[in-house]
Write a structure and sequence with these properties.
The structure is a homodimer.
Chain A lengths: L17 H19 L4 E2 L1 H8 L3 H11 L3 E2 L3 E3 H12 L5 E6 L3 H8 L8 E8 L8 E2 L2 E5 L3 H8 L3 E4 L3 H14 L3 E4 L12 E4 L2 H20 L10 E4 L17
Parallel strand pairs in A: 4-5, 4-8, 5-7, 8-9, 9-10
Antiparallel strand pairs in A: 1-3, 2-3, 6-7
The first copy, chain A, binds a DNA duplex through helix 1, helix 3 and strand 2.
Chain lengths: 254, 254
DNA sequence: AACTGTGAAGATCTTCACAGCA
DNA sequence: TGCTGTGAAGATCTTCACAGTT
């Protein structure tokens, strides 16, 4: 399956469902916004609306973390921010390397959501010697030759692959050999990794194809169905699913 | 929920489960690769390995499309490519507009996976007047003022938002007003859209946070658990989940 | 009265395991 | 014999609905 390996019986480490883990960042984002507006407390209803989920789901999700709310009142914003951050492991520093500094790699390097969430771009790496030394987002690009050394020196455990598909597996192998155990893959390839290594993939092409599928259905329904059951608005999150038994491949631009 | 609207009772338009739809692009990619190597047929086992899923799941997925395989033999590659393409609506032309031509927008514009899958970048749009006329990926950037006109003139029904979070909702509203009914959102915001409009979101920050969660667990387990149940390799697809009742928010860089 | 926390029901998705066809 | 197609079991996720707490 997946990348050619076995998967854990259930990713639900310590009982938190994978689907819940995938939503914690959403709650965190909404809570952070409230925190910046100095809102002291929120009800599950309000927070759910801000995060784009329904309140029952949110309460159930939080129940896996513990009883952090107050009946009749709601949740303390600051406290929840802390609890969720801790749960996600964001209270510690996560040095990250980005490999492949094309437009996408540059976009990622410039992404502000990093630092604020405990992530730190330890290095930008590209195979093109001409890129070496060139600063992107204020960080000088380093050559692929330095990969292993950089990983070790910085204690990097998370790597981002933004290279063309052809180079992805090779880069992946080197990241893993160097000690990286979590990979975010933007290349349109199914990566093969050994046990113990997590891979998440993001693929623009796939997202568009899924949209096209539904778009096509809409066009069809117009002619058919009178009006009884019309398609309703839908918002899907490209992060949720990724099942606990991992079995889905990766993808995307470069 | 989601963007503040209701969702269809079940996105399973015409009976195809949402989870299956999310995997069709993966199969298509694997099949295309086989096709290019002139491989005539594949077994569910082989194709599943190439796509990174297990074979039972793949066979079940295909069973929703119809009986396209031959017992004792496998699936005809070309035939399957056609059937899946048709099912996804990729046999038709999908003009797409990309709004927000920063690094990410440029990366998307340059993404080759577009054209080969029926998608055509009809226009690149940016709010910065200085960008107007500047060619990106061979296509001249146009100013936001032209948005509605472009959508109408090209019959665009799919829009990609790659703007900063602050501009996303406004851009979204204009896209919808112009007639777009499917949106791929890269901005870290929960978009509010009327019924009938689909939104999918991709958020780098969220993906990293999910990785961090598991990474943290790994570190913990090392000290604990002897070796009985060690975490195994996992590959998650950031596209799968997006449930049929849509309820997940969006996110990402700009 | 307001709102959380959660058992239980329902829906969806995955995996098994084997009948059935080439 | 080999491999697909699928009913049925199992696992996970979502939603309901209300008891419990402030």
């Amino acid at each position: 399956m997946a990348t050619g390996r076995t998967h854990r019986p259930a990713t639900r480490s310590r009982g938190i469902p994978e689907a819940t883990v995938a939503r914690l960042p959403l709650y965190l984002r909404a809570l952070t916004a409230l925190s910046e507006r100095s809102v002291p407390t929120v009800s599950s209803e309000e927070l759910a609306a801000a995060a784009g989920v329904n309140s029952a789901k949110l309460r159930k999700d939080f129940s896996y973390l513990g009883s952090y709310g107050t009946r009749g009142v709601g949740y303390d914003v600051e406290y929840l921010v802390y609890q969720i951050s801790r749960e996600l492991g964001l209270t510690q520093d996560w040095p990250v390397v980005i490999v492949g500094i094309g437009n996408l790699g540059a976009a990622l390097a410039n992404y502000g959501g990093f630092a604020s969430r405990g992530f730190r771009v330890a290095a930008l790496i590209d195979a093109d010697p001409a890129m070496a030394g060139k600063p992107v987002a204020g960080i000088p690009v380093q050559h692929t030759d330095e990969l292993e050394k950089i990983i070790e020196d910085n204690g990097v455990s998370i790597g981002v692959i933004a290279t063309p598909a052809g180079a992805a597996q090779q880069v992946c192998d080197r990241l893993v050999a160097g000690g990286v155990t979590s990979i975010l893959n933007f290349a349109p390839t199914v990566l093969s990794v050994p046990d113990g290594v997590d891979v998440r993939k993001v693929d623009l092409s796939i997202e568009l194809q899924i949209l096209a599928f539904h778009e096509q259905r809409k066009a069809g329904e117009e002619t058919a169905a009178g009006d009884g059951a019309r398609p309703a608005a839908t918002t899907r999150d490209a992060s949720a699913d990724q099942g606990p038994d991992g079995d889905v491949p990766a993808v995307m631009p470069a």
